[in-house]
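Entry:
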Amino acid sequence: MSDHHHHSDEPSAWVTRWAEYIPAGGRVLDVACGSGRHARWLAARGHTVEAVDRDASLLASLAATPGIATRCADLEGGPWPYAGQSFAGIVVVLTMAALAAATALAAIAVLTMPVIVKTVASRHFPQLAARRGGTVAGSLRNALSALLAFAALWLATLPLLLIPPVYVAASLLLNAWLSQRMFRYDALAEHASAPEIDAVLRENRKRLFGLGLTLAPLSLIPIVNILVLPIYAGIAYTELCLSELAALRARKAPISA
């Protein structure tokens, strides 16, 4: 939970930009405070700061700092220590693991999905004709729009850190949405026509989201969420989407491009 990789004692530009909206003198919770660069900066501005981290060695340097109270706690794996308490502001500067995982998903979708689709199709769907309804530009647009939407939604969930079980549930739902949103287009782009892409996605919304929800717990595991989940999700979505495309063609006459 701690950010052990601060290379500067200067507060981040993001924190200094938004700190002006914290009421003057208000009590601030600095989550995963690390070495305390933000806690010190906020205390110097007149705020009372509660600095929490699971690494006691990092908190030791803050113990004698005026305006800062420290607490050693694991907010992810332990009980919530601030029940019934309120704060004027909450600072959560993570190592950006969630956004790093999302970026990894985007990179896999854009760069390696063609290889994944070709491999899966040749092994399991050799008779499925390629109608190439998707484009490289469409793949890039899909990945970028999904990343931007995910970033906005992820920021919106940060206040839920005050209620850890709700935050975890929201994270799982958000990652489920991201997985299906990121991979479904690329899984179909080579083999489905544009109308077929629309039809498969429209008819399988629940299944696509359900697969994302099944994979979502992997997004909470460090390293796995960046190195394993994107490849596994790419394969899983390709299998599902090509299977549904084959079923669509078997049920009805081919949809003309």
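Residues 126 and 144 are 31 Å apart (CA to CA).
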